[in-house]
Amino acid sequence: MRVAVVGLGSMGKRRIRILKRLYPQTFIVGIDSRDDRQKQVADEYGIEIARNIDALADKDIRCIFVCTSPQSHSAIFNQIDLDNMHTFSELDLQTCGYDRLIEAEKNGGCKHFLSSTPLYDADVDKIIQLASGRPNTAYRYHIGQYLPDWHPWEDYKQFFAAHRETNACREILAIELPWIERCFGKISKTNVVSSRISTLDIDFNDVIALTVQHESGAIGQLLIDVVSPKPMRELEIIGDHFYLQWNGKPNGIQIWNNERGKSDNLIVQNEVMHQPGYAEFIAENPYEEEIKEFFTGIYDPTFKYRFSYRESYRLLKVIDQIESAR
Hints:
Blueprint: E1 2-6, H1 10-22, E2 27-31, H2 35-45, E3 48-50, E4 63-66, H3 73-77, E5 86-89, H4 98-107, E6 112-114, H5 122-131, E7 138-144, H6 168-184, E8 187-195, E9 207-214, E10 219-225, E11 232-239, E12 242-246, E13 253-257, E14 262-266, H7 285-299, H8 309-324
Parallel strand pairs: 1-2, 1-4, 2-3, 4-5, 5-6, 7-10
Antiparallel strand pairs: 7-11, 8-9, 9-10, 11-12, 12-13, 13-14
């Protein structure tokens, strides 16, 4: 396979790193307009570098990884023939251009993969197995981390998560809601309270308290923030004779044992890969699983991806409603 990776920031480098580990014979072209990123990636990974997509015309590229900031995804897809190019995209926070992508997804001529990384996390998958389908379930989930610590190597004000249209709280919701719905069912009702409690130079509320009701009857409370100096990803699920805790880390699930009167720790991952510079709960494994599934779908026309642009479109509309209710 001949692959282009558009955007050589942190996510582009992660995808290149994984591609080279999984498929060392893959021909990769990295694309970025910034000279510093071009040089860094060329030196570190030894791949060919180009400044823009136009440079790919004579390279027989078969698929493109779109690893730029979310607001630029639509413009990049407008330069691609979606019926003749497989695409892998990082998380979307805006629905611009979704009509073309949903249509291309339906046509099935090429595969179009949209990242939803928690759906590929072994601990999340185990939580879904254990908790989904239970009647009268309730949960509490806190996700947060101080925004400047997300990308400590750069000024947070230059990061897309500091901009209102693609803000960090919106990104957390877009990351977490797909697997939350997979576990508890589609969201039917929300109640939102939000506020600004930090001195960060941003124009959006940095804390959201969200009460959620699901079509299944499950109810939940989500606390989302970009203020906490301690990276937070803590979950509790309760049900009839059921209690689960998760600290957000690999192998961090605990299930209450009614007979023993104490919690049992579940080991669901034998090997956990972690990249320095990221919070402890961010492992490389699910990012690797996403790439494996992307290529599985390319070589098996009948294979269905776990997440779709159609599903993302619906959830982004739910997030729009949450943000408008602040």
